[in-house]
Amino acid sequence: MLRLGRFGVLPALLLVFCGCGDNASLFSDSFRNVISGNVVPLTPGEPSQFVLVRMVNNTRQAIEFVVTAQKQALTLDDQGNPVIESTDETLRMRTFPVETANEVGALFDCPVTRIGLGEDINRPFSEPGIFLLGEVDDPGNLPIGGGAGVPSNVFPLDSTAGNFGCGDTLIYRVIESHEGTGSLKVETFVLPWSTQPTEFTGPHTFNNARIFLEEQIVEEQ
Amino acid sequence: MLGYAHGSFARLRVCWPGLAVVLIALLAGCNLNLASLFNPSFVDVVAGGDGTNQLASIENASGHVPVLFVNNTRFATELTSYLEELQQAGRLSGIDPEITDLRQLRPRVRMPVRVTFSNENFFTFEFVDGDGVIEQDVFSGAETDDAELVVDVPTDSRLTERDLTRLVATCDVAQVEIDGNVQVFVPVFLRTIDVAIPDFGAVVRTVEQIDPPQFRPVLADEVNDDLTVTLTRNYSIFDSPAPVEGLRCGAVVGIVLTGEVSVPFTGPETDPGDAFIAAQDEVPGYVNTDNTAVATVPGRFKFLFQAR
Hints:
The complex is a heterodimer.
Chain A lengths: L4 H13 L11 H7 L14 E9 L4 E14 L5 E14 L7 E7 L4 E4 L10 E5 L15 E4 L5 E2 L10 E8 L7 E8 L13 H16 L1
Parallel strand pairs in A: 1-9
Antiparallel strand pairs in A: 1-4, 2-3, 2-5, 2-6, 5-8, 6-7, 9-10
Chain B lengths: L1 E4 L6 E4 H13 L11 H8 L16 E12 L1 H12 L3 E2 L15 E9 L4 E8 L4 E2 L30 E5 L2 E6 L4 E4 L3 E7 L7 E8 L2 E4 L4 E2 L5 E3 L12 E2 L7 E9 L3 E2 L8 H4 L4 E5 L3 H5 L3 E9 L1
Parallel strand pairs in B: 3-17, 11-19
Antiparallel strand pairs in B: 1-2, 3-8, 4-7, 5-6, 5-9, 5-10, 9-16, 10-13, 11-12, 14-15, 17-20, 18-19
């Protein structure tokens, strides 16, 4: 039989009432999400109609990622013939070699056909996909110039080939490696939303993001 | 398990597990800033680096905080009408072919933003959005057979660079704030007119200066100690963009900029060399003594920060 005594009751009470505000948890949401998940989503999920691309910098340099999302739509040309029209959306995003600031993400609206690094994702072995900005101590004083461009040497991910789908999280990570160009290597990961929980104790991040954007469109009208 | 602590005073019965819980609870700080003790780096120490990430070859993020920018600005009616006349004269470039009505144009906006994390690291970036329309060419002076471009339109790569309106940061984000001046692109030339009133004869208006299309900072109204506005600029101090703090992991930060891009209009110079300018009753610009008009450039705006 477990005897708590009054000295056991006191810590139990502390556990119960140690809210000190709205959050009655001992641990931060981010910590609990790492340990057990189900706090906040790690993938957008198909209902939000986003694809999340995470760019992770595990080097000692500031790095700019050039990520391009290609979208293809079936349209009609002037003669009424169906043609596939391709549009690219390219973002340039900088990361810094310090914890938390070494990672940044981008949200693309579905449907996305292909995603890769570089302005032209058809040339991953020659088109610069990342730019090396050097070892910086202060993210506020980045060099004005674009840095040295390095091909990613990874093929673009293709949704038609089943590499990813709407609602998934794609991850591009740059590590230091003697195997890669410029002593860097790019790795690609996919986190499918179908493997993730759908109920969360915290905010539904990406659903809320979609609602916010749609509210702005309504206001414009 | 109960134990006994021996001391010079009365013996004290101690519940060691309970004591451990108390210490952890105090260290956790009840979601105060001390909760950073349980940040991912601490987890690595406790779990040996692969406690719960044992199957993934890359650690999952602890969560995300999307930062979204919505550009809800418009060109003022008078400026839109002037842009339409420029378009008809073939002097407006950078229009998206899909735009059939210039009232659909969205002014080009640059917004520097800083994201600070709970570990005090930070990064800065710039939201960019809007249409890069720009007035082409302007002539000044007497018209000649070989009219020369007097004022070169500057090449501003920020008109053609990629838009960025969404960024996703990793938890834990402590603060999101505007870092510096928001800038709006004024797509037309602005004339500074000098007005000379002679003793006899008509008023003579001459061009003192022509400012090319460029990004202009959005500035707060100037106020005195009583917070009475002494000079109206671009936004009220009561609408100043304030940092968003106390963000929960998984929150969404939305920044909305509303308002109108506008410029003052004034009569053109006397006998302008440019036939287009000569045909206008008013052109973008101001008399050189009108400081109030100068201060209103590039328009009137309002910031709205949301966190959900």
